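pasting for ref
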Amino acid sequence: MQLEAMNSFWNVTLGGLIGSGLATAIVGTLLLSRNTRITEGLKSDFTDRLNRSSSLRSYQEKALAELFGPARMQLARIKRAFGRWNRRNDHLETNIIREGNVFLRDLFLAKGHLLPPELFEDAEKLVEHFDAWLEEYERVRVSKSEGDKTFVFAGPQGYPFPRDSERRIVEHMERLQRLLYGELTSAG
């Protein structure tokens, strides 16, 4: 009887060990599979975010370097020249203001794909002003149909310089610059 009890004990114990070992292996396999899926999902999400982030930064750097930086410098150059333009000055008008207007118009037309949607209308207004100014320049200076005017202005023809559009574009460039490179301070 003792031997029978001992065999029964070992059968139950062995059966319990095998059963619990099998159950543990199944649960372990399921948990490992679930953890692998979660890990792969996290890796994929991280990679997607990293790629989007890298792509966004690449776009921002390209927009700043190819569109907003050159536009900002040319707008500042024209503004300074306009501030000095107190009498007829063919060099200033032709070589700075006219060339600047042509450069900016062509820049916005060629690099318009780098504009964020909220600035597209502002760029269109600037291009329209530059086109109107260049038409007026052609009429006044080249074909001389207006006599010998002191200044060439597109504003009186209904195309004043869109200062708010200029401001928004410059502000966007400054935000991009801070975002990409932090606060820049001048040395000195």
